[in-house]
Amino acid sequence: MAAERQRATIYDVAQAAGVSKSLVSLVLRNSPSVSAPRREAVLAAIKELNYRPSQAATALAGGTSQTVGVVIDDYTNLWFVELLRGLQEGLSSAGLRIAVSDRTLNAHVESDPLEGFLSTRVEALVLATEPTPAMRFPSHVPVVVAGNRETQVPGADVTASDDQLGARRAIEHLISLGHQHIGHVGGGGGASRLRRAGYLEAMQAAGLSAQVITTSPQTTEASGYQGTIELLDQAPATTAILAGNDSMAMGALAAARDQGLSVPEDLSVIGYDNSPLSDTHLLRLTTMDSRNRDLGLRVAQQVISRLADPKREAQSVSMEPTLIERGTCAAPRTR
After folding, report:
1. Which of 148, 163, 202, 321 has CA 20 to 30 A from 82's CA?
2. Nearest CA to 169 among 292, 274, 323?
3. Domains of the chain, earliest start first
4. Which pTM value belongs to this model?
5. pLDDT over 70 (residue 18)
6. Taken in order 298, 299, 305, 310, is the CA torsion positive or negative?
7. pLDDT tens readout for residues 152-180
């Protein structure tokens, strides 16, 4: 009796159609991101090979997990909440879900923070943190970088808010209110560097003296507190502060309170990121909105596009931030 023909696999389909396994996965999930010619090629190969994916094969199409791994800076910095919301919303159309890892949380047990994701065979990686020398990026896994970073990842797509423009607009807003003694408390990383550059650019353009405190690499509430105490000690005439992010702005507000200053009567404070905590009734923080949900949606599009065409050229997208006026800025009090 003739041997039974071996059952076709997703690898066979990919080879016959001349596409990647990830693209076959997208076709199996009926993703709208696949072009008509490629979809037709995959469907023709499926028919020719009589390919019948099992439920497990569909879920793990191409030996992957239908999962996009997302590496963030720090769970305590809530800037990423809206990013993840937009990312999940955008990926759901392709049947993909996200898994999130804090870069520093498991640093004591994993030398490479990507290793956990790669061992579960994620379809793509989203890097919402600074790349480190320990990170090894395999060529077969698409990478998209969310936000401005000091170190570039070769071949990766990038979507980021224009941090330098945002900081410049924040300072221009404070100047329009009448402030002349404006300080900046920031931290480390690519976004912080660009926000600092935007601050300096706006201050120079207005002919004002700059006062910068850098708490590198931390961008936490605690570092914002300590940086503001230092700034007010060095420049007691300061009437306004641009903080490196909303967490640092919280520290600035606490430092102002402990120094006997009222916000915004004695000291105006602007945060950055428009994180969920900025709109709480307690804070009502004026902040620059990085449009992180929109950023997440755009990152999702880049992930899906790269899965559909792994060989396409890397893309870089810049998004324009906007000022959200709430309750922590006012004209300076006459002293």
Report:
1. 202
2. 323
3. 10-61 (1.10.260.40), 65-162+291-321 (3.40.50.2300), 163-290 (3.40.50.2300)
4. 0.80
5. yes
6. positive
7. 999 999 999 999 999 999 999 999 999 99
